[in-house]
Write a structure and sequence with these properties.
This protein is α+β, with helices and mostly antiparallel strands. The chain contains 2 helices and 6 strands; from the N terminus they run H-E-H-E-E-E-E-E. Bound molecules: zinc ion. The site of zinc ion (ZN) has 8 residues, from loops.
Length: about 110
């Protein structure tokens, strides 16, 4: 259930940003999650709405974008999308890989008034 901790962290950022932007109400929060963060969107949205209860973000609509895993092979330079957790280079079979997408965890944008 790491969704709760992430929801707490992200809601703090949302409220901080809203304050800085002098918003009186947050209407929409767009969030990007990499597949590797293993977020269950429904649980996250529930946890988020709990953490922003009685704040200016309590009625915000939460949109979640899931970013798929992309890796680059350190041996041959091939970059490829990963499906079904097969962490092996499709070109040379090396497992010396670097993740370039899939671990994202950030707020893409906030809308408000
Ligand atoms: Zn390779």
């Amino acid at each position: 259930m790491h969704e709760i901790r992430i929801a707490e962290d992200l809601s703090a950022i949302v409220l901080e940003t809203a304050k800085r932007e002098k918003l009186s109400k947050v209407t929409k929060v767009n969030i990007s999650f990499g597949v590797l963060v293993q977020i269950v969107p429904d649980i996250f949205i529930f946890a988020f709405s709990e953490t922003v209860r009685n704040t200016i973000a309590q009625d915000a609509e939460v949109n979640i974008e899931i970013v798929s895993v992309k890796m680059i092979c350190k041996k041959c330079g091939n970059d490829f999308g990963v499906e079904e957790n097969r962490f092996v280079c499709a070109n040379c079979r090396s497992t010396d890989l670097e993740i370039i997408h899939g671990k994202e965890l950030f707020i893409k944008s906030i809308e408000g008034e």
